[in-house]
């Protein structure tokens, strides 16, 4: 028997399925130029960032099941009197490469509402559902709930979502997606990357985190990494909008997520736009991380 919670989660999922084609069309026709504005973490905003943010925000705030919404593009969370779930989202991950027609996506994480709202420092341990939408040659949706990761493809001709099956991350992969700029990498991190390249791993980094993680999930596994760097000691990726949801999905697909020391979902949320180093991937590749981290501590 379905619970009230399941019905509410279904409402959110149906909203994402309805939103995806609208966002897809907005991206195709939208303005990819930069505005004069910046988001709360000082990234310059594109016009399409703001357009997609508004579309998602208004839709989620209109759902009976949603009591609070937090966007990467907004300073503060917004709450309603009623609604049992909180939704955090990155409206357009990888938007800096959308003008070059690269694969980009929207990322979502859903939580049961508590009195602390999004200011619960342990919210990463309370993800109930996560999802992302990919906008590329195909329109795709990946949903993780009940320890499964479901993959769906949109049929534009019939205007229906077609289930493609569950995603499982291979225990040992062939790809490495290292984020950041080489000039800011530590010597230890360069050695960590070299460990994989010497074994013939393929470089697969696009500038869109959600695209790179999706590639690992669907194309022979491996590791995505964006560490602490000289120019970003706390890491660059936002916990609430990118790290927690994608770590939740990767774990449920059989992989692991770490900040280099701690399981990502166990890391505390110090403030709404807090950032973190991020390593996501297949189990064999992730097992290399503690060895590298121990070396780093000794250096």
TrEMBL record:
Keywords, sorted A to Z: Carbohydrate metabolism, Cytoplasm, Hydrolase, Magnesium, Metal-binding
Membrane-spanning segments: none
A GO CC annotation given for this chain: cytosol
Pfam family, one: FBPase
GO MF term set: fructose 1,6-bisphosphate 1-phosphatase activity; magnesium ion binding
Record-linked InterPro entries: FBPase_C_dom, FBPase_class-1, FBPase_N, FBPtase, Fructose_bisphosphatase_AS, SBPase
Keyword Transmembrane: no
GO biological process, one term: fructose 1,6-bisphosphate metabolic process
PROSITE patterns: FBPASE
Binding site for Mg(2+) 2: 90, 93, 242
EC assignment: 3.1.3.11
Positions of the Fructose-1-6-bisphosphatase class I N-terminal domain: 10-157
Annotated compartments: Cytoplasm
Residues reported to bind Mg(2+) 1: 72, 90, 92
UniProt pathway annotation: Carbohydrate biosynthesis; Calvin cycle
Free-text remark on how the cofactor is bound: Binds 2 magnesium ions per subunit.
Cofactor: Mg(2+)
Catalytically driven reaction(s): beta-D-fructose 1,6-bisphosphate + H2O = beta-D-fructose 6-phosphate + phosphate
UniProt record similarity statement: Belongs to the FBPase class 1 family.
Subunit composition and interactions: Homotetramer.
Official protein name in the record: Fructose-1,6-bisphosphatase class 1
Organism in which the protein naturally occurs: Helicobacter suis HS5
Gene assigned in the entry: fbp
